[in-house]
């Protein structure tokens, strides 16, 4: 797998950042271009601190917790209606934060899709713990995350692992562990034989995973910790005979550590590494995996994964610095998922952080919750993938990414971007807020020059060059009859008089119409 050796320019830097962040800032693109490919990838893959936990954000709920304190380790004695909104607001505010250049949140969603579980709403503390695992292991170790997710309280609850008993083994998790999380399901070559594993292996692994239970913490008003534990009385201590697909191995009784042996066995097969790397490729590069891609990309990535004991960072570094990743055909080849769509609008503006009068603790969380609602309207429900295989855009041929678009969904996207977020009368719970146009214009190299302003804006927001007639169309929307010299004068006064309506209003109005036209382009739906 050859390393990228072409020119490292702003366009290549922007492509890398679009695929690893939720909407790059111009400052990040310029910094990446100056720093070079290796330094930028190192920065993106650097261990990131875990965001501070969600908190009680309003005073009229839960008399047992102080405003601003976290609830992640608190019982449910009080009125807890706010916890769901708090969790969603926390997640989406982390997603669009603009104060660090790191892949953590992008990988958090990768894991949410990879371990795609849904079902009855579980205890919010367990849901937070689940999300925190993905943040901690964003670019960690596949073996480690498989071990931790196998006994994670939410996973045990949602895939019935907490009822898996030696007297009545439950096969749900064992099946998904092989079919989706490790080996992948090959074509059926005989009844119950899927090339990579068999029904015999499902039965054997289900027995090996028996005995794990959750504490009785679910919505508890006591201080029962949110955790799982091993009940040896519920564990099958007999030998578990695997099929020839798994080397006819026998799993002996390992008690509380037997699940780790299960994972070690599954990861000893290259099929597991190949399956993981294919899913990583579809997430970061493109959906089509032909023979050439398998030979020259997926197999080398799988070799790197196994050679590094399933550490993920070396694999991502190899992919993100490869010649393949920067092929022109892949630029703008992915339809944005709702997270990307929302982030690509908000993050380059640093969204509403300038609205300090309005965005107090309560409004900040309510705004994050509103972001969650927008994504729900675009068919990405928070912690609710539609199938155990995840969101269809990443596995369902032949549509793949096209699942994110339809005539109705395009109308919803236009309503959110053009009719709501860019609207001059946008409200959150009754308070008017506005996009940070001033901060955006100030961040450009020379916003007083119309052509430069448009050129840098296209670099930030679009993955492909536009045709000359499209650029002329956008320029017309920006100027609306004013001359380029008049634009220069308007912007000079705008920048010199922050917050003065007399100078802000004309420029803000022109920018609003310009961005409505930009976000209405088909190219804006791509990354």
From TrEMBL:
A Pfam family annotated for this UniProt entry: DUF1800
InterPro entries from the UniProt entry: DUF1800
Top-level taxonomic group: Bacteria
Taxonomic lineage: Bacteria, Pseudomonadati, Bacteroidota, Saprospiria, Saprospirales
Name recorded for this polypeptide: DUF1800 domain-containing protein
